[in-house]
């Protein structure tokens, strides 16, 4: 069976779909039906309602005897989630499920939907929780969001309210912008600078969320890093070569990218080799920048923009990064009912 969620049923007060980033959609289903919504798989951050098309949801309830019943499948088996998707403006999912009155429900959701292949839900004897396993942020490079809504219970004869799932970003966005120093450009007309090579390393490539399971895994978002996946100078997280610098600024790695949030940046290194000067007097320099010298941590849901200046000296001048709250810039919340 498939459920269609027409906007005409808004006034019924039954389970609805609400999606909020920079806009909001309200759509509603039939009597006592559990309904959801979804998001698009992209290497760009989710910043508006237009980015949303599908996501995966897990649900379970306590049967009152110390066991947990999977709403959409069998707890402890693979792919027990439901995929909710947008089909020509209508939110749908297959195999409709109904509310069981008197049961206590918990729901977990994740974006993008392909992460359902690395989500672990424990067996029915323990309280299920969502874990993202061995996520490769270097190669996957997708915006990752999760949401949960716990302790939902409706007595017999009541009218269920929408299930609100407020998604949170689990990753950090980083960008490095290099430019020719304004004073150098003014004092030395014709001054040029080229990045011969640049590489960022020391970051971990794979991680699992949460680092440690607790009562509220979304209160302080923290990833555990997979041993053996820390990047090195020979195998960097990201690298580039042959970039011409401008006084207006040039994005070092071609734009922003996703990394794991981190409570310590002391092992994270940006190595830059550059050639600068006037024609006929160009010289080559190199420098290692320990990122903890510019900022102490990377928090989930924030973007850090590092700006550095190349001058006629033998070193790069690195500014303190600007920090942009991701949610302030993009909304960043998706409510699923």
Secondary structure layout plus pairing:
Blueprint: E1 2-4, E2 16-20, E3 24-28, E4 54-62, E5 68-70, E6 82-87, E7 90-94, E8 104-111, E9 119-120, E10 131-136, H1 137-140, E11 145-152, E12 168-169, E13 172-180, H2 182-187, E14 192-201, E15 206-209, E16 224-225, E17 238-244, E18 250-251, E19 257-259, E20 269-277, E21 283-290, E22 302-310, E23 316-318, E24 322-325, H3 326-330
Parallel strand pairs: 13-22
Antiparallel strand pairs: 1-7, 2-3, 4-5, 4-6, 4-8, 6-7, 8-11, 9-10, 10-15, 11-12, 13-18, 13-19, 14-17, 14-20, 15-16, 20-21, 22-23, 22-24
Question: What do you see in this structure?
Answer:
- The chain is mainly β and 337 residues long.
- It is built from three helices and 24 strands.
- It has helices at residues 137-140, 182-187, 326-330; strands at 2-4, 16-20, 24-28, 54-62, 68-70, 82-87, 90-94, 104-111, 119-120, 131-136, 145-152, 168-169, 172-180, 192-201, 206-209, 224-225, 238-244, 250-251, 257-259, 269-277, 283-290, 302-310, 316-318, 322-325.
- Strands 1, 4, 5, 6, 7, 8, 11 and 12 form an eight-stranded antiparallel sheet that branches.
- The radius of gyration is 24 Å and the shape is elongated.
- The two termini are 19 Å apart.
């Amino acid at each position: 069976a498939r459920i269609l969620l027409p906007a005409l049923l808004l006034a019924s007060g039954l389970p609805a779909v609400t999606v909020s980033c920079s806009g909001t959609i309200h759509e509603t289903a039939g009597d006592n039906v559990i309904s959801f919504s979804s998001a698009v798989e992209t290497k760009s951050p989710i910043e508006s309602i237009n980015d949303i098309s599908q996501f995966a949801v897990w649900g379970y309830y306590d049967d009152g005897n110390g066991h947990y019943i999977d709403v959409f499948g069998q707890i402890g088996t693979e792919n027990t989630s439901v995929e909710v998707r947008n089909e020509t403006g209508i939110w749908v999912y297959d195999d409709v499920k109904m509310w069981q009155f008197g049961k206590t429900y918990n729901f977990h959701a994740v974006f993008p939907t392909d992460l359902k292949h690395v989500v672990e839900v424990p067996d029915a004897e323990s309280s299920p929780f969502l874990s993202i396993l061995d996520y490769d942020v270097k190669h996957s490079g997708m915006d990752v969001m999760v949401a949960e809504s716990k302790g939902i219970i409706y007595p017999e004869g009541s009218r269920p309210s929408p299930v609100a799932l407020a998604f949170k970003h689990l990753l950090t966005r980083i960008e490095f912008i290099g430019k020719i120093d304004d004073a150098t450009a003014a004092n030395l007309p014709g001054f040029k600078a080229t990045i011969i090579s640049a590489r960022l390393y020391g970051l971990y490539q794979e991680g699992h969320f949460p680092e440690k399971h607790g009562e509220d895994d979304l209160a302080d978002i923290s990833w555990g890093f997979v041993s053996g996946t820390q990047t090195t100078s020979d195998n960097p997280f990201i690298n580039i070569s042959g970039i011409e610098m401008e006084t207006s600024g040039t994005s070092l790695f071609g734009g922003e990218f996703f990394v794991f949030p981190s409570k310590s940046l002391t092992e994270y290194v940006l190595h830059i080799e550059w050639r600068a000067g006037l024609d006929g007097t160009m010289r080559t320099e190199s420098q290692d920048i320990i990122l903890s010298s510019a900022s102490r941590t990377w928090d989930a849901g924030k973007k850090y923009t590092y700006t550095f200046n190349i001058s006629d000296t033998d070193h790069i001048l690195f500014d303190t990064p600007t920090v942009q709250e991701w949610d302030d810039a993009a909304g960043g919340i998706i409510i699923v009912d």
